Amino acid sequence: MTYGPKPPHRHRRTTAIAAAAAFAVAIPFTSGGPALAGPNFPSPEGNTNISSIVTYDDLITQLERLEKTSRFGVDVFTLAEVGTAVSTSEQGRDLYVATVGEGDEHVWLQGRIHGNEPYGTESLLAVLKEMGTNGSPDWQLLRDTYTFHVIPMYNPDGSELNIRQTVLQVGTSKRIDLNRDWGVGKFEAAESEAFYEYWTMVDPAFAIDIHHQGLKREYGTGDDVTLSLGISLAPGGPTLPGIEGGAYDVLTRQMHVHVYDELQKAGYVNMDRYQVGGSLEIDIKGGVVSAMMLGLDHDGLNPEGHSNPAIFFETSGNTSDGSLGQKARGKSIRQNVLALTELLVGMATGEVQQEDPARWDEIPHAPVTGYQTDTGVIPIGY
């Protein structure tokens, strides 16, 4: 089963170009030239240098520069300019989006919904730069096939505070995890209201969300994991098979199978499946990409029930636990850019849609014992 029209397959003659671009675009964001050998980052002894991480003001400066220097029409704007009912963060910061491409299908790319997970921002800025300036066949194919909506810093307030959440500013100092706030009876934070309304305007074909996780070792080998591949509604679990006749269950697996195969060619990337509690698959409905797949209709803004498949990447290490050293910075950005590039080109060529979804089970993971849901654990074989 495939989701949507399957583009004709074409031989990836330009794979080397795409891969080279993926490695190159991150280099300007690094302070040195970290060695690529060995999937052994970040170091638990690494000291996080917060001063090197892109701030909200840095984001605005870089977006404005990209808009001015792009060859292929990068458009930068705020949600206030779009006209969403809520258009700023809890602390009053403008919420930025950049678009590029002229394709009929829209793609949603977001990062840093958790403020202490910074390299989604830098990875998306790097990809946006390539989309706006690179004239190679792969990047041109992406611009012709899709219109990209890039949100490099979903949570600017949390990013400035270097915390996971945002802080409600009206009558309380309550912290809200923005990635648990798209749900029935939720939408407590301004950012959730704003980006949800924008999502209903975009109606994307698919979405990708970039995160960080703590330091992790691969089940069975003990090797350091640098990137975990995640689907927030577990394939084969209690929810995803019942959505769109199982189409998203199939396509999200195919997406990650493709990423797994392509990134194994990079010697410094070691991947597994994202799990929690050692052996649980996540099946949460309050996350942004979960709500997208469920076709959530909040406040009557999605009466047609638009939904779209979505996946996420989890780079190892984050700033709050001090596990993200400067030596890991270039590698972290590179692997995110490489994963994004390979997935997007694979979707545009139709290669992803030809992958065997059953090979999802070949991606390293611990034996599954249950599903972590919003209300507790559902054991396997429920």
TrEMBL record:
* Signal peptide (residue range): 1-37
Please list the cofactors this protein needs. Answer: Zn(2+)
What InterPro entries is this protein classified in?
Peptidase_M14
Give residue ranges for domain Peptidase M14.
52-382
The record's listing under PROSITE patterns reads: PEPTIDASE_M14
Q: Which GO terms describe its molecular function?
A: carboxypeptidase activity
Question: Which of UniProt's keywords are assigned here?
Answer: Carboxypeptidase, Glycoprotein, Hydrolase, Protease, Secreted, Signal, Virulence
Record Pfam families: Peptidase_M14
From the Swiss-Prot or TrEMBL record, state where the protein is found. Answer: Secreted
Name the protein family.
Belongs to the peptidase M14 family.
Q: Which PANTHER family match?
A: INACTIVE METALLOCARBOXYPEPTIDASE ECM14, PROTEASE FAMILY M14 CARBOXYPEPTIDASE A,B
Protein name, per record: M14 family zinc carboxypeptidase
Q: Which organism encodes this protein?
A: Agromyces indicus
